[in-house]
Write a structure and sequence with these properties.
The chain is an alpha/beta fold. The protein is about 40% helix and about 20% strand. It has helices at about 10-25, 40-55, 70-80, 100-105, 140-155, 175-190, 205-220, 230-240, 260-265, 275-290; strands at about 30-35, 60, 85-90, 110-115, 135-140, 160-165, 195, 200, 220-225, 250-255, 270-275, 300-305, 305-310. Strands 6, 7, 8, 9, 10, 11 and 13 form a 7-stranded mixed β-sheet that branches. Strands 2-1-3-4-5-12 form a 6-stranded parallel β-sheet, with helices on both faces. Helix 2 (about 40-55) packs parallel to helix 10, helix 3 (about 70-80) runs parallel beside helix 4 and helix 7 crosses helix 8. It binds alpha-D-tagatopyranose. The site of alpha-D-tagatopyranose has 13 residues, from helix 2 and helix 8.
């Protein structure tokens, strides 16, 4: 603790390096590490982050792995730590496997904010556990998003029939919460609906497509699918089309890239729950800047959703929520 300010060593180091940066008239550098680089969700988050960086005179570094997994993300994180940015925004690809590598960032004096996904239990700055050290978690409320998906799918299939969740892999905070929210809401509110086993696709749309074809082959009365993220939803819908059930089996998609919007127009996908990734990126940079300039920041910032279906897909007010490509 320094000077009664209640700063830990890492906090003190951060303030010293940030005041040095300002004294030298040097702009802050904030690094953003996405879950993967080639995903419209993170590309859109990068756009929002870049807009805030421009407004605040911050240098933004965007560096990530080509696919969504901890094995590829950790070396990227290590390389970013070695560049010593003033602050780090990261979408950790695993709740557990990124804890220790992120502790290394804090030990190097780099404050950490997680965006989209979290580590540990996702509740930060409470003094509990070994993973509450990030300063803030900026993301959609994914449990609520899963509940919204359940309600939308239940409505689309008339409250009865078999459904399943097409999902990435266990251990990812966002998609775990969407799945739990979805299954709990189905159990609580829709007794006529049976939720079959989740199919995990490792964020590979081709895998999700072959899985939806096999689930359909085993269950000719399949009524609906919840695609818990962009690749899960796109792949599952393509599989249905290849299996001759496009439009017949209802699909609720999390995320809203151009392809999913196109699929809503043709009727292959019924509903997209669009996250606001640009908002996550914008507030991520703003929170980092606030912290670096001595302001306090909230330990959690919840961003919004926009539900898109055939009835509003062409509305002018919806267009800004369609992800960049
Ligand atoms: O759904 C988003 C993101 O929220 C999730 O954590 C991982 O998948 C996406 O990036 C979409 O592909």
């Amino acid at each position: 603790v320094i000077g009664g300010l209640g700063l830990g060593l890492a906090g003190a180091a951060t303030l010293l390096s940030s005041s040095r940066a300002r004294a030298e008239g040097k702009a802050f550098t904030v690094a953003l590490i996405p879950g993967l680089t080639t995903d419209a969700f993170y590309i859109t988050m990068h756009r929002g982050a870049a807009a805030a960086a421009k407004a605040l005179g911050v240098n933004l570094v965007f560096q990530g792995a080509p696919s969504f997994n901890a094995v590829e993300q950790v070396p990227v994180l290590d390389a970013v730590i070695a560049r010593k940015p003033d602050a780090l925004l990261i979408a950790p690809t695993d709740k557990v496997q990124l804890i220790q590598p992120l502790q290394a960032a804090v030990s190097a004096g780099i404050p950490v904010i997680t965006v989209d996904t979290y580590i540990g239990g996702g509740v930060y700055q409470t003094g509990s556990g070994n993973a509450d050290f990030p300063l803030s978690y900026i993301a959609s409320n994914n449990t609520l998003g899963g509940q919204m998906a359940a309600r939308a799918l239940a409505k689309a299939i008339g409250g009865k029939g078999k459904v399943y969740v097409s999902n990435v892999q266990p251990g990812v905070s966002t998609t775990d919460e969407r799945q739990d929210g979805f299954i709990d809401e189905m159990k609580k509110s829709f007794p006529g609906i049976t939720v079959l086993n989740t199919q995990f696709n490792d964020d590979d749309a081709n895998k999700a497509a072959s899985q939806s074809q096999s689930v359909l082959a085993r269950n000719s009365d399949l009524a609906g699918i919840f695609g818990a993220n962009l690749f899960s939803a796109m792949g599952a819908a393509n599989g249905l089309q290849q299996g001759g059930a496009g439009g017949k089996v209802k699909v609720v998609a999390f995320d809203a890239p151009q392809t999913i919007i196109g699929n809503i127009k043709t009727g292959l996908i019924d509903i997209a729950i669009a996250q606001h990734p640009a908002e996550i990126g914008w507030f991520g940079v703003a929170a980092a800047y606030a912290h670096l300039t001595g302001q306090s920041i909230p330990p959690a910032i919840a961003t919004g959703f926009t539900v898109i279906d055939k009835s509003n897909v062409d509305d002018a007010s919806i267009q800004k929520f369609i992800y960049a490509s």
